[in-house]
Write a structure and sequence with these properties.
The complex is a heterodimer of chains A (about 280) and B (about 190). Chain A is α/β, with parallel strands linked by helices and about 280 residues long. Chain A folds into 2 domains: about 100 residues; about 130 residues, 2-Layer Sandwich (60s Ribosomal Protein L30, Chain: A). Chain A has 8 helices and 10 strands. In chain A, the strands form 3 sheets. Chain A has a 4-stranded mixed beta sheet with strand order 4-2-5-10. A 4-stranded mixed beta sheet of chain A has the order 6-9-7-8. Chain A has a two-stranded parallel ribbon with strand order 1-3. The longest helix of chain A is centred in the N-terminal third of the chain and has 20 residues. Chain A is globular and about 50 Å long. Chain B is of the alpha/beta class and about 190 residues long. Chain B has one domain: fumarase. Chain B contains 6 helices and 7 strands. Chain B has a 5-stranded mixed β-barrel with strand order 2-3-4-5-7. The longest helix of chain B has 16 residues. In chain B, about 50% of the residues are buried. Classes of the chains: A alpha/beta (about 280), B alpha/beta (about 190).
């Protein structure tokens, strides 16, 4: 059995928090560029220019792409043959604390949802634990801004609503969000599972690079179809009108109950950030 | 063509601002978002004086990232405005003339804007690194305990914004989208 010290995890999480917030993943940059090239509407093109200029400044100056440096969502894929010395939750939180403090990132976490007093160091992180084969640890930090999180929705559809119901719901969520979540957006969709698993799938879908389609051809086609339909709505970058409302639709699915068809839509802005490391 | 505006924003100046206009704002503006708005409106409810004079003022809905050494302020883009809708009409009635944010506003806010000749500007969301470069000076003037949500006095130079809703209630979100959709159907 392999051993890993919790200090190693802390250091990795610290660095990932800073990296993820200051440097946009290349797949998102490429998607923004590709959309700009086929954007027919002048004001939309000029907004996309500014968005590119912004991430270039963030890259060059090592500053956050967006002031909302998010709740720190941390995905852990823990090899079942790995032994972690120390408390893993504390190790991750300490990494978030160091990253957000030493990286000059905004602290956006309140300790209680009703009392609403800022915790001052962006902890605790939202941690997702996954046990996988092997003896490695994969850590993904995905800072999640709430302008887009607030525009996300979940619906327990009926089996009779079928594929049409799923499509209509995705479009409804994007339409109601309009300019609020900072389009162009990335649309994460979770279909199936339970109430909570559908939401988890939708969030996980946002971790997939936007240039990778679902492995199943049926869902890959559905992703393409929904992207086209969303980009016919005319909302455009920042909601000023235009073709580029979404950069991608990523769908993930799970088996579900004979009585149900849960669908969750998790919206992300054009600053869809995530950074991973395997230890 | 961009219109240059030197703060404060008077009622006369807003007559020249129309939905869709590109504007560069210079001078003093204030920051404020959820928690600060809540406190301001609690003071109003108690009949107390506010920590800032809102007459002809502009509030930028932003919670900036902390400044790195050598920076005036960290990344500072707009937050979503609808969360301030419950509070904005009372502040507009006190003389607030402009709000900078992103996203839709309620019918009540638009009515209060029309009543007071005020304007709603949009800054590009998710462009905080770029927008921070227009901020030349920043100091906390109230509610320091709120951290990023404290009220700050900003001195800005050519801060790029767009008129989303003008004082007559015209709305760029509706008009821009309509123009785009019509241009697409003409091309078909």
């Amino acid at each position: 059995m392999r051993n890993i010290q919790s200090e190693v995890i802390t250091k990795a999480v610290r660095d990932l928090c800073i990296e993820a917030n200051c440097h946009l993943p290349s797949d998102i940059k490429e998607a923004i560029g590709a959309c700009k090239a086929c954007e027919p509407f002048a004001i939309a093109k000029s907004v996309l220019d500014r968005i590119e200029e912004n991430y270039e400044i963030a890259d060059a100056d090592n500053v956050p792409i967006c002031q909302d440096t998010g709740l720190a969502c941390v995905f852990l894929e823990i090899g079942q043959d790995l032994h972690i010395e120390g408390n893993i939750k504390d190790a991750v939180d300490e990494g978030v604390r160091q990253g957000y403090t030493e990286g000059y990132l905004r602290k956006s976490c309140v300790g209680d949802p009703i009392e609403r007093v800022n915790t001052g160091d962006n902890t605790p992180a939202v941690i997702y634990y996954d046990l996988v084969p092997g003896d490695q640890l994969k850590i993904t930090v995905a800072p999640k801004g709430f302008g887009s999180e607030n525009m996300s929705q979940l619906k327990m559809l009926k089996p009779s609503d079928g594929l049409t119901g799923v499509k209509d719901f995705i479009l409804k969520v994007v339409e109601e969000a309009g300019p609020n979540p900072c389009p162009p957006i990335v649309v994460g969709v979770g279909i199936g599972g339970t109430f909570d698993k559908a939401a988890y799938l939708a969030k996980k879908a946002l971790m997939r690079p936007v240039d990778q389609r679902n492995e199943k051809p049926f869902y890959a086609e559905l992703e393409a179809e929904m992207l086209e339909k969303i980009n016919q709505l005319g909302i455009g970058p920042q909601g000023f009108g235009g073709k580029t409302t979404a950069l991608a639709v990523n769908i993930e699915t799970l088996p579900t109950h004979i009585a149900g068809l849960p669908v969750a839509v998790n919206i992300n802005c054009h600053v869809t950030r995530h950074k991973s490391v395997t230890l | 063509m961009e219109k240059k505006l030197q703060m404060p924003l008077t009622e006369e100046m807003t007559r020249d601002l129309h939905a869709g206009d590109n504007v560069l704002i210079s001078g003093v503006i204030y920051t404020g978002r959820d928690a600060a708005h809540k406190r301001l409106c609690e003071l109003l409810d108690q009949g107390k004086e506010l920590p800032v004079d809102l007459k002809d003022a502009v509030i930028y809905y932003v919670g900036p990232a902390p400044a790195k050494p050598g920076q005036v302020i960290g990344s500072a883009g707009p937050t979503t405005s609808y969360r301030m809708d419950a509070y904005a009409p009372a502040l507009l009635d006190l003389g607030l003339k402009g709000m900078i944010g992103k996203g839709k506003r309620s019918a009540e806010v638009v009515e209060a804007m029309k009543r007071n000749g005020a304007v709603y500007f949009g800054a590009i969301g998710g462009c905080g690194a770029l927008l921070a470069k227009c901020i030349k000076k920043a100091e906390v003037v109230a509610y320091e305990d709120l951290g990023a949500e404290a009220i700050r006095r900003l001195e800005v130079e050519d801060l790029p914004v767009v008129v989303i809703i003008d004082r007559w209630g015209n709305n760029l979100y509706e008009e821009g989208r309509k123009t785009y959709v019509e241009s697409q159907s003409e091309n078909r």
